[in-house]
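Hi R.,

Here's the chain you asked about this morning:
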Amino acid sequence: TDVENELVAVERCIQYTQLEPEAALVVEPRPKASWPEDGSITFNNLSLRYREGLPLVLRGISCKIRAREKIGVVGRTGAGKSSLMNALFRITEAAGGSISIDGVPIANIGLEDLRSRLAIIPQDPTLFAGTVRSNLDPFNIYTDEEIWRALSNVYLREQVEQMGKGLNSPVTEFGENLSVGSRQLMCLARALLRNPRILVMDEATASIDYKSDEKIQKTIREQFQNATVLTIAHRIATIADSDRVMVLDYGKLIEFDTPANLLKNPLSLFASLAKKSKQAKKEATEASIAAS
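And here is the predicted structure, written out as tokens:
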């Protein structure tokens, strides 16, 4: 029995050795240090599948996102929202088509250069055992003043000061000594320090309350005015003030317009999703009132 159990670990090790490695970290010539200057993104007939032989999860996505635009990305579960972001970071390589940032195809750029120039705030905030400072600035690049300014901009300064040791206050593994909302704000402060030209929020506010969600959206509007922001949202209210909204369904881009124009059409998928989101918010508010 022990041998059989332990052979599972051997089998897993063999599987890891057979995994296809990622693309090169560095490709010459490397992009300029200032790239991307604007943050425009072009999807050209993009297709994506997670493994050879599996069906496509993105099918012929084509659109252009202008520099400094705030774009909402919505759709039903499995529509391809997160897959679009996987393709942008080249976590999964495109099966067809291309993505360009400021006119440069990202397939021609090393992964280190590409991923270091983009910022993402995932649905599950990632914090490590250490201190507030080590979580916000793991490579000791920024001054204390810059870190405190970032914490102030995300409404966390007072909370960190109350933790006792300021920037040296302890953070437990996965940030379990902080609330989910505070963890998301910490990730937002981390992104703010890097001052990226492109910021991706992958359902970053799906697991927090509406009040914390509104606080995060306010921070993004104020602090990332010069960045292109792509927000994957479960709640329509989260992306209601976006410049435009991408509506995905079964891996295809079926609607791409301003929220106001999409809502004018009662037959649009966006209008249908907005109606469901409004009902969900109403039910959550009623449940909160009943609980209190």
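One quick note: The chain is about 40% helix and 20% strand.

Cheers,
M.
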